[in-house]
Design goal:
Blueprint: E1 9-11, H1 13-16, H2 34-50, E2 55-57, H3 65-73, E3 82-87, E4 89-91, E5 103-105, H4 109-119, E6 126-131, H5 144-157, E7 160-164, H6 170-179, E8 181-182, E9 185-186, E10 190-194, H7 203-211, E11 215-219, H8 237-250, H9 254-266, E12 270-273, H10 278-284, H11 294-301, H12 307-315
Parallel strand pairs: 1-2, 1-12, 2-3, 3-6, 6-7, 7-10, 10-11, 11-12
Antiparallel strand pairs: 4-5, 8-9
């Protein structure tokens, strides 16, 4: 067993529901066993722990993931383990691989209280409670009832209150969240943000977040699979060439390079892996063994695209 704590964290979306927005290898398997899927997810939590992972990120919107984590936490006793969860999405696909609707977003006070009633079972390992995909459209950052309830949980439970962000206006959402105070105290201290080789827009606000000592958690570090060579994305040919060369030089996979890029350029609290099996997780963990040179960082920084282009392309990805 690997006892030392590693930098990488584990996001649990892929082990909680059979489909996610991503580019995956096509498979001919059509049968789906809920029991088998559940057992695989539970096993991966234990395997991740044995590999040294101590930060686990989940949400009610991730199907069975949050309940799996609640159950698995009963089997360990380790104060180093830290859990983050979210509220605001309800999983609706009922584990049907052919479902047309997978989730429903609702940022109401009623939904917050409803989902907190389950999430509270993650204590004492739960340290971070987040709005799931905060946006201007839902008005959640102006909902006084919600904000005061989160402040109450922060005070009474000792939680770090945060949010996850998504979309081309991510920076504007983060800027508004940074300004929110309840009774003179900043409410949000953790920000789970999209950042990767393609979308590097977060860089524009990093200095300010550093000044305010905010916790940054990186999600979608692999750009939903777009960092891997794919004939459907010929416009990334130069990116693929560079990633391949750097990965070959360090004798690791492209995933490790992409993850380490996030680590070195942002220096966040953690970078999340979205691995659904131990093989992919082990490959991700190769990031721990390398350090990118200044020239390699420069080459990868030059591959950034506009946030608008990145998110327009992401919208076209399928649930699979």
């Amino acid at each position: 067993m690997k006892n030392n704590k590693v930098y990488l964290g584990l996001g649990t979306a892929a082990i909680g529901r059979p489909q996610y927005i991503n580019i995956r290898e096509k498979t001919t398997k059509t049968d789906f066993s809920l029991e088998e899927f559940r057992n695989q997810g539970f096993s991966l939590l234990q395997q991740a722990y044995e590999m040294g992972i101590r930060y686990f990120d989940t949400a009610p919107g991730y199907g069975m993931a949050e309940n799996l984590l609640i159950e698995w936490l009963k089997t360990i006793e380790d104060p180093q383990v830290e859990v983050a969860t979210k509220w605001g999405y309800t999983y609706t696909a009922n584990f049907d691989p052919n479902a047309t609707q997978h989730e429903v977003k609702e940022h109401s006070l009623a939904k917050l209280n409803e989902q907190w009633a389950t999430s509270v079972q993650l204590l004492p390992y739960l340290t971070t409670y987040q709005i799931h995909s905060a946006t201007f459209e839902t008005g959640v950052l102006e909902n006084e009832g919600v904000l005061r309830r989160l402040a109450q949980l922060k005070k009474n439970q000792g939680l770090v209150i945060g949010l996850t962000s998504t979309g081309s206006n991510q920076l504007q959402v983060l800027q508004q969240a940074l300004s929110i105070q309840i009774e003179g105290v900043p409410l949000f201290d953790a920000f789970q943000v999209t950042y990767n080789v393609l979308d590097q827009s977060l860089a524009a606000i990093l200095e300010e977040m550093g000044r305010q000592h905010k916790r940054i958690i990186i999600k979608e570090a692999l750009a939903n699979g777009r960092v891997f060579p794919n004939p459907d994305y010929p416009h990334y040919a130069e990116l693929y060439r560079i990633l391949n060369e750097i990965a070959t030089h360090h004798s690791v996979g492209i995933d490790a390079i992409a993850l380490q890029f996030c680590r070195q350029t942002v220096r966040p609290f953690t970078v999340l892996s979205g691995a659904s099996n131990a093989t992919h997780l082990l490959s991700n963990l190769q990031m721990e063994e390398i350090k990118l040179s200044d020239e390699e960082i420069r080459l990868l920084k030059d591959q950034a695209v506009s946030a608008a282009f990145y998110w327009e392309e992401r919208k076209a990805l399928d649930w699979n």
